[in-house]
Structures are given as C-alpha cells and as structure tokens.
Design a protein that fits this description.
With 212 residues, this protein is α/β, with parallel strands linked by helices. It contains six helices and nine strands, in the order αβαβαββββαβαββα.
C-alpha cells in the first residue's frame, strides 16, 4: 500500500476505525457521503466505494491541495468533490461556533463523517451536523471521530438534546480514537434550542475568545 493510502498520522481516523465505518457504510448502501475533514479517508473512500459521490470539506488550502494530488495519483472510481471552506464564526439557533463556513450540500445525504475541524475550535465539530442535517433523511448515519474525548462526548449529548426524537445514538466503534455512530430517524430538521446547549456554547466561545 502506498504511503498516501496509509493512516500513518496519530491524529488521523486510523485503519481500524476506517474499516468499521466502511463496513457500516456498505451495510446501509450509502452512496452520497459528506466528509468534514479531508485526507487519507477521502482517498480510500474513492477506491473502496466506487459508486459513491463524496463531498469532502477542508479548511486548510495546503492540505486540500495534497488531497487533490493524492486523488489524481491514487484515487479510485468514486466521484469526489473537494470543497475549501475556511473556519468562521457562525450561529445555529442561539449558539455560536467556529467551524467550516456554511456552503452547499447535495440535495440528499446518506452518511456524514465528522473528523474535523480541529479540537482548537472548541465545539467546531458540533456545528457540522447542524449545517448538513436539513439535507439528510430518515436513515442517514453520522460518524464522529475521537469519541473517547470528553469534548466529543459532550457534542453527542448536545446533538441529542437538539434533535429529540429525530436523532438517536446507535453505537460506538471501540477502536483507537473511538467513533460514535448516530442515525436520523425522523424528518424533523430544525434543531430545538436547549439551555444546556446554549450555556455550553457560551462557555466554549468565551474560552476560545480569551485564549492567549
């Protein structure tokens, strides 16, 4: 296997996690996939899911260029669209986040992998689901990497409070970083404001703004 196809970075998704996500994607026959955070997984999905249409979102221009070069050299038949979206402040409901700038998504999304932006954005990964959720359907799966961290566990709690009755947590893949697996089970799309989510957002935003 060429180095470009190897999850060699300590902060990457990892081979075991990738295989678990890949198996689950195949089990639900996911073809339209959104990925927050590009890299080795983008390359591997293009090869392992030949019928897939993948939108891969990245905030770092140099990293996106590297992914594009690797796709040209080692990519598979899956259709990949790379989208550069800088990290920016944004509001969802009553909460503020720093995350990938909002942009277009496919009309119908079958699965979403959230492996970015970095933890330095505090709750940046939480905003990703709020952006893409209106384009999803009952049965859409969501995969959140690094679920072993307290921050990601809090994100899942916030999501479930925001979409009561419409989003459920199915499982977590207990591999390396751990991956949380959630599924949309109803057509409700507008998130519900919850005081705990708003308070958490205020605290995390303040920490981000006051960081030296």
């Amino acid at each position: 296997m060429t180095d470009a196809l190897d999850f060699k970075s300590s902060w990457s998704l990892g081979e075991e996690a990738y295989q678990s996500v890949l198996e689950d994607l195949r089990s639900i026959d996911a073809t339209r996939i959104v990925e927050f955070g590009s890299g080795t997984s983008t390359l591997r999905f293009s090869r392992d899911l030949p019928n897939a249409e993948l939108l891969s979102i990245e905030s770092d221009p140099a990293y996106l260029d590297q992914t594009r070069s690797n796709l040209e050299a080692h990519g598979g038949p899956g259709q990949v669209e790379l989208s550069l979206r800088a990290v920016a402040w944004q509001r969802h409901g009553l909460s503020w986040f720093r995350s990938y700038a909002p942009g277009p998504f496919p009309d119908r999304v079958d699965a979403v992998l959230i492996d970015g932006p970095p933890i330095e954005t505090r709750r940046g990964r939480e905003a990703c689901l709020y952006q893409v959720f209106p384009y999803c359907h009952a049965g859409t799966r969501f995969y959140l990497d690094d679920y072993r961290r307290d921050a990601e566990r809090q994100i899942v709690e916030n999501w479930l409070r925001a979409y009561p009755g419409a989003l459920v947590q199915l499982a977590s893949f207990d591999v390396v970083h751990h991956v949380a697996v959630l599924e949309r089970v109803a057509e409700r799309s507008a998130p519900r404001a919850h005081w705990k989510n708003t308070a958490d957002s205020m605290v995390q935003s303040a920490k981000l703004l006051l960081r030296p």
